Amino acid sequence: MDFLVLFLFYVTLVLIGIVTICICSKTHYRKGLVRGGAQIISYIIPECLQRAMLKLLHYLFHTRNYTFVLLHLILQGMVYSEYTWEIFGYCQELEFSLHYLLLPYLLLIGNLVFFTLSCVSNPGTITKANELLFLQAYEFDEVMFSKNRKCSTCNLRKPARSKHCSVCNRCVHRFDHHCVWVNNCIGAWNAKYFLLYLLTLTASAATMAVVSTVFLVQLVMLSDLYLETYIDDLGHFQVIDIVFLIQYLFLTFPRIVFMLGFVAMLSFLLGGYLCFTLYLASTNQTTNEWYRGDRTWCQHCPHAARPPSAEPQVHRNIHSRGLWSNLGEIFLPATAHYERKKN
Question: Which one is catalytic: 91, 154, 165, 179?
Fold first, then answer.
């Protein structure tokens, strides 16, 4: 039971942490929490270690590097190695359908293709050559994106829905976010690859979780473990329950159970993020616009300071054209189609 309690406690803490970050990132309390946490850490951790941690964090999250790309491939390789080494062989002995067992490998092939395309494809870098093209792509709302604004770093006029990425040091058309897992910006031209990468990754994790669960359930049913009894600490006979079964399976197949817990939690987290990404795609929003739109809304809150004569500026999504048109814009951006036709 020790492992099960610790694992559930770990999963609970991770989920609570993620939900807390998501909530705080959308409120004005975030800066206060970060500042308070930094002050507490400054009293606990030596200054030299703090500088080393800041340098490491800056390298990992504020410079282009392949650390998370390699970590992604290593974790994926470890999960698929365990699946191939144990689950695939056991399931063949239990006469599982071969098509059912090969599905995770088919999803892996597709995932690696879209992962590579997300890493190496041009997200929509704005240059002098295509600056005028991007300026005509979207309408300026004069709230979040204003006309005649220039990027002080690139010395280019900023098209609507664009943003300068400090990590890649370039302006990106229809900027969504910079993803450390693919070491690239996600913009107008590679958003479709990232969406399909996320979809196949979620599907592969969920498929392996289902196959592993079905294998363990089949094993319990064939061995009639659920009909057995055991003697508890007080010397009484007890019928085997679900908690005892999980503990028994972990002691018998520790790597399979641990992998099942990992891919199940990963499926839950990736599924949530996939739903959020699909929501943004269906409403023709980017992550950058969603975040900035909420900050614009917070300017009207009572605690927000603004000049008495200032008119409140309400952000409206002026780019949504309906579900199918919005999704079509992800998979066939107008500017990319125009440049291919021009070439």
Answer: 179
